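Entry
Fold in token form

___
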Amino acid sequence: MNVAAAVERERAVFSEQAKASGKPDNIIEKMVEGRIREYYEEVTLLAQVFVIDGENTVAQAVANAEKDAGAPIKVTSFVRYALGEGIEKHEADFASEVAAAAGSQ
């Protein structure tokens, strides 16, 4: 799905939710625009809060790094980690562990 289609889908959903509230059209439009702005902040890397300091956006962190480096910096790639990713839980069969422990005594 391309970006324009995703934004239009979200706009339609937000619009339906706002219309269900029974507010006037001009208020609905402002509500939808606010929700779209929040959507962009969640899904675009440069608009997200920088996880290291929790105050600046990633774009602001890049700008600060440019000042420190004295040269322009461009984000060319990134790695996305999901919460809990890489944590594998060891699955064991409790009954076989008990049987093995009982048999080895």
